[in-house]
Amino acid sequence: MTTFTTTLQDFDTKLWRHHFPVPTEIANQFINGNNRREICIINQQIRLQCALIPYTDGYFILINKPLVERHQLKVGMEVNISIEKDSSEHGHEVPESFSMLLDQDEAGKKYFDQLTPGKKRSLIFFCGKSQKHRQPIEQRVGNYRPPQTRRGHTGF
Q1: Average pLDDT in the 98-118 region?
Q2: Assigned fold of 2-85
Q3: What is the pTM (predicted TM-score) of this model?
């Protein structure tokens, strides 16, 4: 694990907003080929699974607006960040209900296994997000079903 100090910055665009710059010499310690998935701990209290995203003069880590607001982070605020390699299978915590679904649905599991790592993470994220809002598993499955059951469209 490596710890360094950086500041919260804002790209102020529609696509990306709050982020933490990461110096290239630190990022290079954790990048393994195309694998840039990391675990980031901010001020020893905010733990998130993230990616080191390349930028013109280094790398950055995105942080979403709810986390910024919940922890009262402000643009320009100095923070301590600890980074370690994310060794999880998907680079994101898999909800138990989604794991159970994969265990029970052979065709769905086969389809899921063919997705790219980024699409798998997106699907896991959306299923976990809808689970937090108490959306029934039947509605979450709609995002997961193979193309033949969704008129050929997956959204992935």
Answers
A1: 80
A2: Elongation Factor Tu (Ef-tu); domain 3 (2.40.30)
A3: 0.68
